[in-house]
Amino acid sequence: MITKTRIWLSSPHMGNLEQEYVREAFETNWIAPLGPHVKGFEEDITEYLGESSYVAALSSGTAALHLGLQLLGLGKGDLVLCQSFTFSASANPITYLGAEPVFIDSEADTWNICPDLLEESITDLLRLGRKPKAIVAVHLYGMPYNVEAVHKVAEKYNIPVLEDSAEALGSHVNFQKCGTFGDIAILSFNGNKIITTSGGGALVSKNKNWKEEAVFLATQARDQAPHYQHSRIGYNYRLSNVLAGIGRGQMRVLDDRVAARRNNYAFYRDQLGEIDGIEFLQEPQGFFSNRWLSCILTPSFDIREHIRCELEKEDIESRPLWKPMHLQPVFEKARSYTNGTSEALFNRGLCLPSGSNLEKEDLWKTVEHIKKALV
Ligand SMILES: *Cc1c(COP(=O)(O)O)cnc(C)c1O
């Protein structure tokens, strides 16, 4: 059971309307991966992101990445440039399609894919006669990647971008929302994300055909016929109508959730920002992060681990920053272009309790024990 006493990193936070939508699903017997809430949820997301965003609600963010890469025409042996500093779900679907991830390290300003290294990797691979088929860029912890520079490189070499916005619903750059930058973008509604359907995701695109193609592939690729006929291989990736009901309720409170998480970050920064050796990632000019997780950088691996273990003793959950993909055993043989940034972040960084449902006293307690661990 999820107990009240433990202070969690990021736990689900329901509003007032989710159960009403779920009850409606039960009453109308739409207990299936189709129904009015699926369409309603998609419309809610479109309304949030802007008119020209076509949305396919799916069973997970990972499923959305898998379909997105397939829509970009990825196949066996193709190379995909993927941000190394991320959760494994950004990279795994590349391998589902028999393609090869090439990992690109981060820049210090956003912790996301480094535009210079990205260009370097492209020119290097072009020299080898291996033009990459796609770029997977991630808005990690809610901080947008350097959208302008990354897309400039992508356009220069005519390589499509899959924007992994799983952690960044509610973030924006110069008021353009994350989830609207890529040729295809994905969202996640997993239990730990800023809003959740318990499990779920979405594929977003400005191209209406891609949305329709995604839905087609997500529902077993059924041809139009009275019987079941298939000309292509499909998947069972559509979102359940029951879970879409939860999503509709969650969309109503998204702005509150963003505000609450940003308040967590502001509190931590207020309390810990003056301490020698503790650093925070700040928003570059024009960037707005949903602050999905509040993270600190400590002076060293040992100090980070000491803080983490002291918090754990108090039943406070914290977690090292993502371990870069180029350092993961499973991707040992993958090509990578590195500059040491993500490895240093992994060694020194810690994610602090960041849920929108944390009590003020939880935040005070966390800060108190971090300070104690540092003396
Ligand atoms: C959560 C997450 C995903 C995958 O989403 P799921 O819905 O859990 O499959 C992909 N990328 C990143 C960066 C994530 O944090």
Automatic annotation (TrEMBL):
KW Transferase (keyword) present: yes
Modified residues (N6-(pyridoxal phosphate)lysine): K193
Top-level taxon: Bacteria
Species of provenance: Lentiprolixibacter aurantiacus
Family the entry assigns: Belongs to the DegT/DnrJ/EryC1 family.
Pfam family, one: DegT_DnrJ_EryC1
UniProt protein name: Aminotransferase class I/II-fold pyridoxal phosphate-dependent enzyme
Keyword Transferase in record: yes
Gene Ontology molecular function: pyridoxal phosphate binding; transaminase activity
Keywords: Aminotransferase, Pyridoxal phosphate, Transferase
GO process annotations (BP): polysaccharide biosynthetic process
Active site: K193 (proton acceptor)
